[in-house]
Amino acid sequence: MFSKVLEIILLAMTPIVHSGAIPLGLAIKLNPTVVLASSVAGNLISVSILLLGLEKLDEYMEGLYLYENTIERIRESCSKYINNYGALGLVLFVITPGVGSWTGCIAASITGMNKKIALIVIALGILISEILILGVSMGLITIWNNFFTEFL
Quick one: which of 39, 115, 137, 150 could link to 12 by a disulfide (CB 3.0–4.6 Å)? Predict the structure, then answer.
């Protein structure tokens, strides 16, 4: 079981496919609470590292077109959330589909938000979005199972 939980944690640490950690955990028959806790933990680990390293990354990547372009797109998309609503705006930004915690870290850094506050706010956003993903995943699994038991 420990190796399965570790798989969920590692998948949740990745920038793009982290949302697949919960469906994977449910698919391999882990307890939903364990899946949720593992996914949140993995996501928080990566976010913590990212928040600590963003300033150095920014210094290193400054001037590269792709990096500057990405930062500018994030700045444009997060400004309406964070400038209007502050920390609550960052939570809303993080739970927006297609955005996520990694982009939320960059948005917090761009806007100069205190790192401790940013980590707490992003953690709240992670928890909310992971609970939503868990609910949707469990609902789809229930529908799937009912479909096959009903028609097969």
Answer: 39
